[in-house]
Known about the structure:
By secondary structure, the protein is an all-alpha fold. The protein contains 9 helices and no strands.
Amino acid sequence: MMEEQLKINTEKLPAEELRTPESSLLPDARNSMFEGNTKEHLYQSVNQFELADFVPENIQHQYDTARNLFIYGYHVYRFYVVADKQLYSTLELAIRECVGEDQLWLYLKQKRKELKAQKEKRGNPSLGLRLYIGYLIEHKLIQNEDFPQWHHSRARNAEHQYRHEICKKMDEEGLSSHNLDYDEIDLDAYHFDWDLTKVLSETIPALRNGLVHGSSSLYPGVISHFEQTSIIINKMYERTKRVTA
């Protein structure tokens, strides 16, 4: 009976249609498909990814516009994608203002010379987000170690290699069992060469371009993008501040 009542109530909720003053604050019916998609949960999810106090106020305002759009996705499901678009526009603006457009143009010219010297006929860089993130990487304004995602992947990789070593030891010594002690793992002893910043330099511009040039994509899972973007902006301003101090 409860499931039938929930279905009836959900069907009465707005989705794609233009909202009326009466329906403007109702939840979008599609949020009921995902457990925990309440306003409180959405707020708590995005509130943890803040910009540091030393990030300029105008960047803070643009970033919080993206966070507000994410929260209001509770009412209008398509706002999640709009939040993503706003987020990447904020990132591009932040890099331009933090690094400086003159410096980015010099970097562009340098990259064009390198490509010409290599006689490459395609892949000519343009002054866009891909180039911007490339600049941050080359000048060590962002690093793999800045991202929890990289540390988690490194730990999983070390655990996998550790289990492989134990299995090999069991085969060599004819053991039928062996206790696993993950406290024995020394992360530095295990090779891990995944370059997350390079992955971000390819995926973020692709996502951003898809949104800016028109997209029918519809997805709610953008919270990881807030984590990545807040880290990039915070670390960039922090390290630039150190250099110019």
